[in-house]
Design goal:
Blueprint lengths: L8 E3 L3 H33 L4 H30 L4 E4 L3 E6 L2 E6 L7 E3 L4 E5 L5 E6 L5 H12 L2
Antiparallel strand pairs: 1-2, 2-3, 3-4, 5-6, 6-7
């Protein structure tokens, strides 16, 4: 990547951003776990006296909230695991740096990547949909990277 004299740009989560992410995780992860459980316990007492439509509505609500909390829990944990990873990108693709390990991917390899706007996270995934890196909107260089990603891949 750097051998063709193309300009490389860096995307990384600063120390302040990482601290903010850990604070959010301390607050949100217990909510994602206990929220559906609390809803089941609270609504469970009312189910014995409820008619069929109330039971159906409560069941749908519990299933929906459990799904959303599970999804957000999964995304948060996956994001936290990639917080210390750094990334550079240029016209050929990206390079991920985690410790002493470096992995390179072309822009075509990243077509399965996905944005989760409700979480403010963009997940880089390779062609086999393996998660590579999660980028929070607050990462340095995020906006420039997203513009480049849109130009190269259309995402």
């Amino acid at each position: 990547m750097g051998k063709n004299n193309a300009k490389e740009s860096m995307v990384e989560h600063s120390k302040a951003t990482r601290v903010l992410a850990y604070i959010c995780a301390v607050i949100l992860l217990p909510v994602y776990v206990s929220g559906p459980i609390a809803l089941i316990l609270i609504s469970g007492k009312r189910l014995s006296n409820a008619d069929a439509s109330t039971v159906f509505i409560l069941a749908a609500l519990v299933i929906g909230i459990t799904y959303l909390c599970g999804k957000y829990f999964f995304l948060m944990v996956r994001f936290l695991r990639s917080l210390k990873t750094k990334m550079t990108y240029d016209d050929q693709g990206i390079a991920l740096y985690k410790g002493s390990e470096t992995k390179r991917y072309s822009w075509n390899d990243l077509k399965a990547s996905r944005e989760y706007a409700s979480c403010q996270i963009f997940c880089l995934m390779d062609s086999s949909k393996t998660h590579l890196f999660s980028i929070w909107e607050y990462a340095s260089g995020y906006r420039e990277f997203r513009q480049k990603m849109y130009e190269e891949v259309g995402i």
